[in-house]
Backbone:
């Protein structure tokens, strides 16, 4: 019996063995893209406000945001929560 003649569950298993190793790399690439966009937005907002952020604030804020969204939070909730956490941490 060839793979094409195999029962559907066997084909699904074979497909998952091929696709599964790709998923973490894709997720990591998506996280990198989201982080870059977040940092660009953070830097633009700080520049628009005429402020120079403390070292590490952008990375902290964007990591917080990404973690919150990956945990199932909404974008709006993650933005509000992480903005507040960063302001408290960096005394702004």
Residues:
């Amino acid at each position: 019996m060839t793979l094409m003649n195999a029962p559907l569950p066997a084909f699904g298993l074979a497909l998952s063995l091929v696709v599964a190793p790709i998923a973490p790399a894709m997720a990591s690439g998506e996280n990198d893209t989201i982080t870059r966009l977040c940092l660009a937005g953070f830097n633009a907002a700080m520049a628009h406000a005429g402020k120079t952020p403390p070292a590490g604030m952008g990375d902290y804020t964007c990591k917080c945001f990404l973690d919150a969204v990956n945990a199932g939070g909404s974008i709006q909730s993650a933005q509000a929560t992480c903005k507040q956490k960063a302001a408290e941490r960096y005394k702004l």
In short: The radius of gyration is 20 Å. Residues 31-92 form one domain. The chain has a mean pLDDT of 77.
